[in-house]
């Protein structure tokens, strides 16, 4: 490759990357779901106070039910990424991106705003620390929520299709061309 030349990838590359990022999201969603269930079953439901709260960054459990709900949403979006990677259909692109945008909002609202917002009832220094941690959580969940829709968009990008000879390479399209 010459200096200054960008690498040229086809849709199979982006589909593999979508599987990779969906796997990372699945791990995050299932682990968030698991820590919420564990906290609810072992400590209790409703608002946890004092030493009952669970601190395992990036997970903070004040309301176990919110962790369970957020974990389910992330898990659902990750599974949708596997489906999008396998089908590689242009239909549903905006719904997939919208699902990830909603996933990010759920993470912000249920985790950063709600749980970390009620974490510290102490003095200003303790509240500043919580704000710092919630900022890191927002950036972490943003990265998790942007990469799967980006990889999905790149699968269908015009230049990617050019590298595929102008044809879609979805398994459904390949089967149709083969007469299956």
Automatic annotation (TrEMBL):
Keywords: Membrane, Transmembrane, Transmembrane helix. The chain crosses the membrane at residues 18-39, 59-83, 95-118, 130-151. This is Uncharacterized protein. It comes from the Eukaryota.
